[in-house]
Amino acid sequence: MTTTATPPDAAYRGGTTIDVWNPEDDAFWETTGKNVAKRNLIWSIFSEHLGFSVWLLWSVSAALLPKAGFEFTVSQLFLLVAIPNLIGALIRLPYTFAVPKFGGRNWTVISATLLLVPTLLFAWAVQHPETPYWVFCLIAATAGLGGGNFASSMANINFFYPTKKKGTALGLNAAGGNLGVAVIQFFLPIIVGGAGVFGLVQASENGFRLERAGYLYAVLAVIAAVSAWVFMNNLSGAKSSPREQLRVLKYKHTWVMSFLYIGTFGSFIGYSAAMPLLIKLNFWNQPVPTVQGIGINFAYYAFLGALVGSVARPFGGWLADKYGGAKVTFWTFVAMIAGTAAVVYTLTLLTPVPKPPAGAPAPDPATFQYSDAVVAAVNANSDIFPWFLAAFLFVFAATGIGNGSTYRMIPLILANEAKKKASPDTVAEAMLRATKESSAVIGIAGAIGAIGGFLIPMTFGAPWVTDPVEAVKTAFVVFAGFYVVCLATTWFFYTRKISFAGRSTSLAAANI
User: In whole angstroms, how far apart are CA 124 and each of 88, 183, 222?
Assistant: First the structure.
């Protein structure tokens, strides 16, 4: 391969726009590109990490609102958890197109600064118990701004790395962001004065101060914006118009991969958002916030799902680099089907907890005692919890691996299609166009996949759901069926080696 002339080192320092960038050139990559890409990856991860934490801020804080004096129903709490995911999914499209328009560094600064909106509004709202529910819904919607960071960050980093290293790089970038979910779910209860760390940290006697989380992440957002301005770069070669990017909407594989990403990332973000309330709903009993609850405290364990899924994501990218993304994705859906079936089985073992009669007065905290039947049911369900948790974490691990493998497939699919259509004289141009288009597909798939983050919590506790406990069981059965469809889709388009009914073989030969 012809070696690209390398401009002076000053052209590649942080805070600049780079005009010459050819990561596919091995000499350029080893002497210059690798270190520049690594620096941009680190600060991209930091900003995206904060975005995910802000995006899922309501996933854990919603479960704490009753103790903070807010009288919301289970359905209302699930809706507060779901709304940011819907907005985050919708906003990913413009965020994806913003990178080629404004530059990766510039947009990272803007997107990090925008996180001040949801964090400061959250800090204000949780200090006022008289705040109407509809206002909470609007404020929760602004947390969706954090969800957009993922799309722009992934689209940006895709330009910095050579094709052979995209799987690992995109996996690390996404995992660093996804870890923001686990971090907010682990630390928020501690920061605001609640219990956590498997019970090693006890709740503060002075009550909750939920606003602390909002103020902390507002400060971190400012740090992220300043760091991006100083240390990151724009790539002039990554510029393209929205019209050029929207061309990928005509490609069949854009929609196939977006559908598969609903199964992997949609499950990850949806389960992550719902896990605190799922544990509280099925394994915890507390008739009113002023009565000591019994059972499994969600604050001890809610972060584990997002942690496992995040750590597994770069492993999925590595496996995809080694064995092929399609093969890894195929077996990921097999694992998700098995894991979801195990989750459903554990839920069928739960003992219904007796409820107080309709119209019964609220219990007096000074004299209240749990009935023997309630205690027995809660204890029996607590014995089931380790099996539920193990099965659910297995599903989370599979979603993380699938997230990494599907995103590895996208650049390879576009590159494969470009090579097939290009002549020997136009290969270089075709590959550059494929890189730009794969960034657009990554953003579109991320947007569509994130819709699962809205649908899953709504399935568990939508306003029309009268029995959330039974709705959870039914929902997991439906999800298992959906994974079967995803498995069949992966086989048909990417691993099938036979032809039938006039259909050509899949992309299996290309080892996507």
Answer: 21, 22, 18
SS3 355: coil
In 3D space, the residue among 119, 112, 81 whose CA is nearest the CA of residue 98 turns out to be 112
Measured CA to CA, the distance from residue 215 to residue 90 in angstroms comes to: 26
Residues 343, 357: Cα–Cα separation, whole Å? 30
Strongest mean pLDDT among 134-138, 320-324, 370-374, 409-413: 134-138
Closest to 257 in 3D by CA, of 445, 417, 89: 445
| Cα–Cα distance for residue pair 212/218, rounded to 1 Å | 10
List, as one string, the DSSP characters of 421-485.
H--TTTHHHHHHHHHHHHHHHHHHHHHHHTTHHHHHHHHHH-TT-S-HHHHHHHHHHHHHHHHHH
- How far apart CA 146 and CA 48 sit, in angstroms, is 8
Residue 292's closest CA among 368, 183, 199, 352? Answer: 368
Higher pLDDT, 6 or 131: 131
456 closest CA partner among 388, 402, 399: 399
- For residue range 249-273, list pLDDT tens digits in order: 888 999 999 999 999 999 999 999 8
